[in-house]
Amino acid sequence: MEAKNPLIVVLGAGFGGLTFCQTFNHRTARVMLFDRQNHHLFQPLLYQVATAGLSAPEIAQPIRSILSNQPNVTVLLDQVTGFNLAEKMVRLEGSTLKYDYLVLALGGCTSYFGHPEWEHFAPGLKSLDDAMGIRSRILLAFEKAENASHPAEHDRWMTIVVVGGGPTGVELAGAFAELTRTVLQRDFKRIDPSHARVMMIEVGPRVLAQYSPKLSASAEQQLKALGVEVRTATKVKSISQGRVDLENGETIFAENIIWAAGVSASSLTPKLGVELDRVGRVKVNPDLSVPGYPEVFAIGDMALVLGADGKPVPGVSPAAMQMAKHVARLIERELVPGKKPSRPPFQYRDKGSMATIGRSAAVAKMGRLEFSGFPAWLAWLGVHLIFLIGFRNKLAVLLQWAYAYFTYKRGARIITGLSDEPKR
Amino acid sequence: MEAKNPLIVVLGAGFGGLTFCQTFNHRTARVMLFDRQNHHLFQPLLYQVATAGLSAPEIAQPIRSILSNQPNVTVLLDQVTGFNLAEKMVRLEGSTLKYDYLVLALGGCTSYFGHPEWEHFAPGLKSLDDAMGIRSRILLAFEKAENASHPAEHDRWMTIVVVGGGPTGVELAGAFAELTRTVLQRDFKRIDPSHARVMMIEVGPRVLAQYSPKLSASAEQQLKALGVEVRTATKVKSISQGRVDLENGETIFAENIIWAAGVSASSLTPKLGVELDRVGRVKVNPDLSVPGYPEVFAIGDMALVLGADGKPVPGVSPAAMQMAKHVARLIERELVPGKKPSRPPFQYRDKGSMATIGRSAAVAKMGRLEFSGFPAWLAWLGVHLIFLIGFRNKLAVLLQWAYAYFTYKRGARIITGLSDEPKR
Question: pLDDT band at residue A234, thresholds of 50, 70 and 90?
């Protein structure tokens, strides 16, 4: 074994962990990348799998395949079970490792704000399995509506409630409205899917709160044009099977409830034994190292990093990728023999952000420039295709989108996971 | 309600049921099509989903979407629970219906020849869920091999046993050999997937027994060229977790066992109360009606029909489609007011058959013409693209194949269904 070569352990193959492995460049250091899944997921398009626009393999690539040209990187499928930062050890189901550097890039998970019991009735959207589950549930609901004999039952099956008015909630609500109003409409004989009710519930005063009030208003107007009922300043009191109770006393009966309201850091962060913020993120030093452990870094959605303006760097993929590159450069420099160089602080460069709402509908900001509607949608399309990993996927996704745009059809309207006939 | 219009109930939306609905042409008759899935599955390419070549939505189309232009056809997702043929009634989970004509097109299921306990260790390949399950299991096995520390463990994870040397077994074994020898080979750092052992076990004296001995020999030779160990005249004694015991006393340790040995008719056929053959098929009259019930027809894999040569018509999709058209014409004629016409017997026209083995490897016969290797593979490619339903799917599949052919990569190497991080 090459025991004297430094070992860098990277946990998580999201945008942060993957970018670190792709850009870290050192002749002798070994990198071991662990993830619980075999694929890197292009999270920004996950909502398209949930809404039957794309198929799962189109937005996922095997991690090994992406990194097959990095000779010093070993990819292993395993699950983290614990840490001993003082001993520089990480425990996994398959092994225990002693590292020289540890890069934590574990991402986030859906948070129900202290109501884990809501998850069963209102699934969140974080993994491919989540997305395929939501797709099957929604499509199945319209099948049940077609079979139902009582009008009240129709309405229940044909009501979709999206909780949360952030980018994911807006994308989902817009895509569900389009799915019901255009794609499914031709397919059913008894029900009229265009009468489906798509509702978005946001506790704050406006949707897409991280954008300017002007863009929020534009997004709300674009959602309404697609047929989405937008309820801002509305708080959910409780969620149970087929019903959402609001703080204002109203009850909404809906067999399709999707939770897009809360994200917290990976549930592994409490095991680190370091200071966390309210949603479980590690409060890192300006150089992204974990306080007290200079050889441990936290990047991406699990790190709380303050920007130049004193506000937290947002949990978006460009930020995770910038942090990964910062840490890669920093470790490369420290591995040069001789005096340890000083560590520069991480600086986030906001290149702009955008949220899509539907066909020709989106909002975007780039520096002081803000735009919405068709130009924003075109920009969104281009940026997402450029960043979607793997040539094949880009081409397949582009074709699917072109097909959907011109024909108003969607290719992935497949329900899986229904029980099969018993074998004999 | 249009109660006086005759009602034709069709059960099953495979090749038989779907073709009936597409070709049945009558101004006033109503057709109700029931299936437990929302999609029609292009079964001949299912093995490509199991071997990570294609994604699930590429070989499946929503039934409603295929039939959206047939105004008299209603598509419902439901499960058959029983029959009362004497009363012309069919019971479903959602309703009970009284039909004028009943078309049974329920297809087949995997048969373990009286050993249902083997299913857990050696899954079969009949549905999209089966295929995605097999894909995840095999890809996961190679991840486990990469993690394993002991050589004997490596071998166990990297051994794939396909039981059955019919068309499905041959396709699977060939595709697994290609997957391990070309696609996966570049991705792993510790193991060498090209050393994976792919074994095919066939109880009969030769593979593809329905072809000529010459084509069987060619298929066996093409399989061996891909690296498949072919064991003919070999009987499985028992299957348990990670091991196959053969009648000859040999034991094979393998964490990947796929069952492609037996097919029987749908498990619903015993509920009909009519005469069945050994594998549960309905012994139909020459006009495809069920003996004693002239208004009930059975078509496709669930019907035992004798051809002009006295041998059973094979359980292949062209046969099911021809039967569907025969029954459609027959019912159309009987619905014309006046004297009932006599019923012609069904005649199967064998247009040839083909089985693919791998890249540029296949066997085909058309009448007395037999060929193998690259020309047979090209013919297979063309025929399957022509019959694959839906323009979008054809294009997507063609692109995937072209990509895989020229790059030796496969797009759908995604493991789903692994446990996710707990939500909070």
Answer: very high
CB contacts of B132 in chain A (<8 Å) are: 416
Beta-carbon separation of B268 and A421 below 8 A = yes
From the number of C-beta atoms within 10 Å of its C-beta (0-12, 13-18, 19+), residue B250 rates as exposed
Amino acid at the residue B247: E
Shortest Cα distance from A68 to chain B (angstroms)?
5
**Mean confidence (pLDDT) of chain A:** 90
Given B93, B117, B171, B421, the catalytic residue: B171
Instruction: Say which DSSP state B204 is in.
Output: S
Strands lying side by side in the sheet with A80-84: A80-84, A89-92, A96-98
Q: Give, in order, the Cα–Cα distances in Å from B10 to each of A144, B103, B145, B296.
A: 19, 5, 47, 10
Residues forming beta bridges with residue A244, ordered by sequence position: A239, A252
Residue spans of chain B under pLDDT 70: 1-3, 389-393, 404, 406-409, 411, 417-424
Q: How large is the greatest C-alpha to C-alpha distance in chain B, in angstroms?
A: 79
Residue B80 three-state SS: strand
**Separation of alpha carbons A161 and A158, rounded Å:** 10
Cβ-Cβ contacts under 8 Å, B393 against chain A = 411
Active site annotation includes B202: no
> Cα separation of B198 and B155, whole Å?
11
Query: For residues B101 and B6, is the Cβ–Cβ distance under 8 A?
Result: yes
Q: How many helices (H) and strands (E) does chain A have?
A: 10, 25
Which residue of A73, A109, A189 is in closest CB contact with B423?
A109
State the pTM of this model.
0.86
**Cβ distance of B129 and A37 shorter than 8 Å:** no
